[in-house]
Amino acid sequence: MDVDRLFHYAVPGEVDLIQGQRVWVPFGKGSKPVLGYVTGFSGQLPKDVTPDKVKAIIGVCEDYPVLTNENLALAFWMRDKYYTTLTACIRCIIPACKADGRFPGTRRRKSSGIQAKPAQVTLTDEQQNAVDQITGGIDLSKGAISPFLLHGVTGSGKTEVYLHVISHIMQKGRQAIVLVPEIALTPQMVSLFTARFGDAVGVTHSRLTPGERFQIWKQALDGEISLVIGPRSAVFTPFKQLGLIVIDEEHEHSYHSDTTPKYDARAVAIKRGELSGVPVVLGSATPSLESYAHAIGDLTTPYTLLKMTQRVNQTFPEVNILDMRRELTRGNTSLFAGDFRNALTQVLDAGEQAILFLNRRGHSSFVSCRMCGYVMSCDHCRVNYTYHQGWAGGRLLCHYCGRGLPMPKKCPVCESEHIRQFGAGTQKVDEEIQQLFPGVSTIRMDMDTTKGKQGHAKVLETFRKGDASILIGTQMVAKGLDFPKVTLVCVVSADLSLFTGDFRAGEYTFQLLTQVAGRAGRSFGVKGQVFIQTYNPEHYALEFTRQGDYEAFYAHEIALRRAMCYPPFSNVFSIMLSGPDEKSVIASLRKLWAIMDYCNKKAESQFELMGMSPAFVSKIKMLYRWKILIKSTDEESLKAFVLYCMKKLRENDPLTGINAHLTLNPVMLE
């Protein structure tokens, strides 16, 4: 933080600088060469800097700017928006470089551009209306354009709208960015867009090598490609003729970065659209409450709402809620209700396919001794081990730090042999399916089965070719995937996301279940079936999912938020301190609490201090985590309050060995 500011350097006469370039500069008392970024030029020095103290730059790294003017402006905006350093923002915008400052990788051949505009697809009336409104906004733009919220039910053809609009802007020599929430969706999206636009398409994601990511970035910078598809970091693609940004499945949590800077890619995209005067299209069958509130006028800064209420095939799946309490009274102790097993039998006999969704990987969610009650947990994190098959005797793994150990044969506390696995993950689901339907071909899609660059693509291609009849997976299978032969979907346990203690739990559950239900019956002439298994069938999120009624869900949920003054009607600021010594972390947080309590009283209790408590996962990788939550209706006042209190804390406490994490409106209350 002490050196995260602008420094002045002299420019030698033989050096020709451009804003956004990287340069080598002498820094500090020893004039050690370090990398710097040219953020601008000035004809005069600040009053506190004398000419004799100004050093000259050593030289440039590249003969081109690595930061476009838009991305440089974004970096400054992100620094203030997300309470972090300018350096951290710049580093997430440009490709990673080696220790000597060089970018990795080599240049790829120049692309040949758009294929000789595209497959002819007849749009529905709703699709055509959406295309006309978006392209009309592009043609008539004279500055900033309000974002479009494309609210289309699953299977309504949102992707085809994206394709038509992008074709329109490419014909005008402009470029586009398409954000997707999951790497799992990238292969499918790439195949669709490549079929239409050829090698004008570039794809980027975290599983590419640094060299491969640099190649895509440099091609975009040089205008050799016209479309980039990728997760949240693709929003920084350095196009110079940007014409459109699309955020598919805009409600997804993965658009929020969980590492510094903790930015929201949706907010960054909207800011970039504002800076460049281009439209941003947010698409979803289950929009976030914040986006929908903007679209219908419940909040300021309105979005333009585009609705697509009909599936392309005119058929919606039938959603059934199965009460697993009744199954227990009938003596059924398996993972699956009888009605679902009967339906799956019919699907398999007909040569169709099914998707089984459980948002928990591994075999069993915990291992416990039935004699003394001891639960196996990670020493480095305060979480239970998850049991995984695949090793001799099985293995216990921590999903936070990766630490593991063999499945014990005796309880480490009482030495009883009655130590067993409990709960279910995707491996357990697969195992029980094999027991109920011997010989059926299954394939799993979770973090354990999709490792490697092509891990997701291989699983999806296997299922698409029909080499597996049942796809079992976590949230990777819940959105965006389109398999014509899938006629049956089962949510094995809808309760996992309902009772997380987060005020957004109802919203997350409705979105997740609606999205996974939308995978069934997407081809013409087929009516899909969806079974949602739960021990809480009365919950409103499940009932609105069964009805397929987003507007009714929104009305119910937004009323709760308004009554409790939760986002989007207020802002929640999370301050988390973490460190290796829990007593020191708690002591520092208590000092901060006292400062905040005093300052809040001086401000006539303008802010609501919601409590000091351990984080949901209170220890990760030997670091203890405690937090304070503060709530206010005014974002700027809240920001100023938090930063002032943190400054006062640092004046009294050096926070030695303690990290402070500041997050506005975290996607989940940790």
Description:
With 670 residues, this protein is α/β, with parallel strands linked by helices. The chain folds into four domains: 125-308, 3-Layer(aba) Sandwich (Rossmann fold), CATH 3.40.50; 318-361 and 427-561, Rossmann fold (3-Layer(aba) Sandwich), CATH 3.40.50.300; 364-423, no CATH class; 571-664, Alpha-Beta Plaits (2-Layer Sandwich), CATH 3.30.70.600. 31% of the residues lie in helices and 20% in strands. The strands form six sheets. The chain has a seven-stranded parallel sheet with strand order 6-7-5-8-9-4-10, with helices on both faces. Residues 111-116 have low confidence and may be disordered.
Key phrases:
670 residues, alpha/beta, Rossmann fold, 7-stranded parallel sheet, 6-stranded parallel sheet, 17 helices, 20% strand
In terms of structural class, how would the helical and strand content be classed?
alpha/beta
Question: What is the β-strand count?
Answer: 25
How many domains comprise the coordinates? 4
Instruction: Kindly report the name of the CATH homologous superfamily of the largest domain.
Output: P-loop containing nucleotide triphosphate hydrolases
How many DSSP helices?
17
Low-confidence stretches: 111-116
What is the helix content?
Answer: 25-40%
Strand order of the largest sheet: 6-7-5-8-9-4-10
Fraction of residues in β-strands: 15-25%
CATH architecture of the largest domain: 3-Layer(aba) Sandwich
What shape does the CA trace take? globular
Question: What is the residue-averaged pLDDT?
Answer: 90
